[in-house]
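sorry for the late reply, my laptop died twice this morning and i had to redo everyting from scratch. anyway the thing you sent over, i finally got around to it. pasting the sequence first so we're on the same page, its 137 residues, then the predicted structure underneath. double check i copied it right bc i was rushing
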Amino acid sequence: MNFRKQLKPETVGFQLAPMIDVVFLLLCFFMTSQIFAQWETEIDITLPTAETGQVPERLPGEIIINIGADGGLVVNAQPVSDEELASTLARVADLFPGQPVLIRADRKTEYEAVIRVLDLCRQADIWNISFATGVPE
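ok and here's the structure:
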C-alpha cells in the first residue's frame, strides 16, 4: 500500500531578493555616473567657438568658474566675489596641489574679467587651467 501523497512540484513565484539586488546596483550605477555627467553650465553664457576645440575628459573634482558677460563670477551655481573666489582657490590649492580649474567665459565678457580670474588662480598657485569653448555649428 502506498500511503504517500503524490508530491506536486511547487511553482516558483517571483523572486524578490534578486530583483532588489539588481535595482540597487542600477541605482548605484546611475548615481555614480550622474556625478561624472554633471556639467556646470550657466544658461546665460554663450561660449566662444574654436575650430580645434575638443570636448575634454572631465576630471573628478574639477572647479568650474563661470564668468558672465557682465564680469560676474559663478562657482557651484553660487555668485561669488573676487575675495571669496581667491580664498576658495587658496584653500583648494593647499589641500589638492595640481587641482584642475576650468574657466567658462561668455563670448561677450571683457578680457579684463578673464585676466582677473587668471590672476586669482596664479596667486593661489593653481597652474592646471583650461578654457571652455563651443563647437562651431
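The longest strand covers residues 63-67.
thats about all i looked at so far, will dig more tmrw
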